[in-house]
Amino acid sequence: MAVLALFHHAGGSAAVFRRLIRLLPDHIRPVAIELPGRGRRWREPTLHTADEAVRDLTELLVREAGAETDLSIFGHSMGAYLGLGVAAALERRGGPRCRVLFASANLAPRLASPLFAEDEVPASDEEVLRRAARYGAMDAGSLRDPHIAARAVSLLRADFDICDSFVRTRSRTVTESRVVVCRGRQDAFGDEHTAPWQWSSVQPLTTLTFPGGHLYLESAGAEPLAAKIESVITEPARSRT
């Protein structure tokens, strides 16, 4: 059975994958892994660097999937960068190896710039939420509750730290995995933003588009996404030349 590891977006949790998981066929086992500070791991302290996050996700995935697994990774937004980091880390460990990295809803890491400068004073809560809202990833209604808003800001700060850390230290990571870019047609990222994902893999790049915006996998894009994931995972492995 093929295993599909699922890594969530900044400020998010494994809940973003609920609809996709329901649509996947029985021969693909989804493994949704959350960073500390949310979901089942809400009591754990949040992480703030890419090194910490990649190490955490790699160790959890190895325990969950085993060493001899037919493995692919689907990383959404921040999760795309962490998926790249985990795929490369697994190659260094010697297994399990990621066959396909689905890099969803994020521009190529070598094009990315940090969201916040290292020497800036900490951003206000309003600025943190404003940055997140650019991608349509925040539920404005839920943020009216001050407790929910405070929790959202705390997670976003931690995850934005991870993203900025990745861009500064790991943007040139290269994997042997095949990279398949997935994006919503109404998202902010077009071909010019995603085509350079090719630099992150030794294999040819594939790009797939789906109806919807940044969170297309929660809306109209979920069904065609599940079908494409099945199609790609069941294809014979490609040559690395």
TrEMBL record:
Keywords for the protein's UniProt record, in alphabetical order: Hydrolase
Chain ranges of the Thioesterase TesA-like domain: 10-233
InterPro entries assigned to the protein according to its UniProt record, in alphabetical order: AB_hydrolase_fold, TEII, TesA-like, Thioesterase
Any one Pfam family match given in the protein's UniProt record, by short name: Thioesterase
Matches recorded under PANTHER family: S-ACYL FATTY ACID SYNTHASE THIOESTERASE, MEDIUM CHAIN (PTHR11487:SF0), THIOESTERASE (PTHR11487)
Family (UniProt): Belongs to the thioesterase family.
Protein known as: Thioesterase II family protein
Naturally occurring in which organism (per UniProt): Streptomyces amakusaensis
